[in-house]
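Dear Dr. H.,

I hope your travels went smoothly. While you were away I took the liberty of generating a structure for the chain from your last submission, since the lab meeting agenda had it listed for discussion. I wanted you to have the full record in hand beforehand rather than looking at slides cold. The sequence, exactly as received, is reproduced here:
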Amino acid sequence: MKPEELIDHVIVIATEAGQKIRQIYQQGSFRKETKEDNTPVTSADIAAHEIICSSLKALTPEIPVLSEEAADIPLSERSQWRRYWLVDPLDGTGEFIAGSGDFSVIIALVEHNRPIMGVVYVPMTEVCYYAIAGLGAYKRTLQAELRIHSKQLPKEQDNSLRLAVSRRQDPQSVLKLFNQPKHCELVVLGGAALKSCLVAEGRADCYVRVGPTGEWDTGAAQIIIEEAGGQLMDTELQPLTYNERESLENPNFIVVGSPNLEWDKILAGD
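The corresponding predicted structure, in token form, is as follows:
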């Protein structure tokens, strides 16, 4: 099936998983454990994982699924995949535990090591961002659906950048990466995918992530920001790669709304 034939089905799957997360969140009682990599996982993560994986396997039994909660698949097996689903059942587990509401469900379709379709569903607002390669990026709410575009700044612009940052991270760890940090206006929000979508819809100019993330955190966000007119790159301004290494951990990365800006000069570098 083509991505445009799959997208509505995937949005339904993401919504069902998100509704389950929302139910657990509002009940306020969930199990919390710590994984081997010292990151938290909750019963909401597992419940969403089970809904998404079973539904995707029913929808496309021929396409393998790589989920954060079942990622121990060696590269020797993954490298044989021409196309696969890349899933983060609950992006922003820390925000879920803290009660901020800033978390999402992420599902991407990756083909030949590049995301070609992505869905980011936000359970607490029931907003859905999605994109298909070559067909644009969109934001769907309960009231409407509209195509989204990142904010394109003039190349010679010297005004402040609106920089999306995590409320759970010291902003100085991000600001030190910029040559003129005083020109950065901070937009605080939780969840990696949500901050990427903020750039995609033009409400922030860039988002820099410093610290560990997995490929499932960026797959859907990458195709959404690209189709909105921006880019997602590592801090050396090189595109992220997918399913090409044994490790599924991303490098530090930056999401930019205006690729035409001289980001090599805006960023401080080493």
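Two observations you may find useful: The first strand starts at residue 32 and ends at 34. The CA atoms of residues 57 and 63 lie 7 Å apart.

With kind regards,
E. W.
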